[in-house]
Amino acid sequence: MLLRTPLHELHLQHGARMVDFGGWAMPVQYTSVLDEHHAVRRHAGVFDVSHMTQLELDAATARPALRRLFANDIERLAPGQALYSAMLNEQGGILDDVIIYAPLPETPNLWRIVVNCATHDKDIAWMQKHLSASGLELRERRDLAMLAVQGPAARELLAGLLDAESAAVVRGLAPFYGRFLPQLGFVARTGYTGEDGVELMLPAPAACELFPRLLAAGVQACGLAARDTLRLEAGMNLYGSDMGEQDTPLSSNMAWTLRFDHEFIGRAALLAAQAAGPSETLTGLLLEDRGVLRAHMRVALADGRSGITTSGSFSPTLQRSIALARLPLPLPETVMVEVRGRWLRARVVQPPFVRQGKARY
To answer: Which residues of 149-180 are buried (b: 16+ CB within 10 A; e: fewer)?
Structure first.
């Protein structure tokens, strides 16, 4: 039996095609992937992402234990600021990528943590194992839904549905910051599309009430297929595809998230790997021939070395196929990718492929 988000019936009412995603019944698309993708790049779209795991830790003594759990450093955060980080094992392998929200003045000890649904059991067990030594207890907020409203017009359209005070907060919210709105719940200016917008963590009844109002205001309902093409264009990793426990941030285009000036699980292993120098990296491919790149395709370098694609799709913005690929270093300028028995030429590029709605290549 698949798990269902609080908006399940609304998805069916609006014609969504549902699929099994990590044990959840989720909308993969409503109209077409292209329409939904372009709506987010050009205007606004809303995604139900209530399958994501929302965790809270409410304790004045939480900071030292959280610093040890995450490779990025929460000590740098201002009140309400969000942080993207890897959570690592002792070998420096990526257990998951997470977003942590620092406490707000009105809730001075409350940390919010969002992790992937596919790693739900593993993540909670790992975190609780290390937090319990400090007498800390995670709380999972299954009563909350999560909506991602993304696109250049997203914040303004959302603000138009709110009272004056809440609308002013949404309009004035800085990137990667969150605030609590009495009318809605917690709102943060983050996302997984490369566009502006917010993510809302709010009680399930409020999410079910807001979703149709957003659609009536001109926001496009979007499914997971468009979410995947958007995040791929933005060069954002998907856990379980582009990275996993066998990979480190150093080899996964995530070195920028590491802060070695504090102690964290996996730090010693990463320092050793950094000293030895990486042998591979995660990079972008831009297909120069006709075809569509997908995950798990073989990549051949001219000198006999090889790699593999980890994610791939047709890019609606670039009007050509793109991929993320794990390749050996040093990188060449071009490679050959085996696509359905044919070897096609691709250019090696640095992600993202699209920035602020504009193609980079």
So the answer is: bbbbbbbebbbebbeeebbebbeebeebbbbb
**In this structure, what token pair is assigned to residue 271?**
């320092």
Domains for the chain: give ranges and CATH numbers.
279-359 (2.40.30.110)
Q: Which of 258, 311, 254, 324 is nearest to 73 (CA)?
A: 258
Length of the chain: 361
User: How wide is the angle at C-alpha 103 spanned by C-alphas 101 and 104, nearest 5°?
Assistant: 115
CA 264 – CA 66 distance, rounded (Å):
9
Query: Residue 73: its pLDDT value, please?
Result: 97
Under 8 Å between Cβ of 309 and 241: no
Give dist(CA 28, CA 227) in Å, integer: 9
Measured CA distances, 96 to 120, 225, 242 (Å)? 10, 21, 11
Give the tokens for residue 91: 């070998």
Cβ–Cβ contacts within 10 Å for residue 319, how many?
Answer: 8
The whole-number pLDDT of residue 182 equals 82
Query: Residue 286 is encoded by which pair of tokens?
Result: 């831009």
The pair of structure tokens assigned to 121 is 């059991």
DSSP 153: T
Crossing angle for the helix pair 33-42 and 224-233, nearest 10 degrees?
A: 50
Confidence at 183, pLDDT banded by 50, 70, 90: confident
Using CA atoms, how far apart are residues 311 and 288, in angstroms rounded to an integer?
17
The answer to whether residues 235 and 284 touch, using CB atoms and an 8 Å cutoff, is: yes
Task: Give per-residue pLDDT as tens, 49-72.
Answer: 999 999 999 999 999 999 999 999
Q: Which two tokens stand for residue 112?
A: 């919010």
d(CA 133, CA 256): 29
Closest by CA position to 96, among listed 322, 263, 257: 257
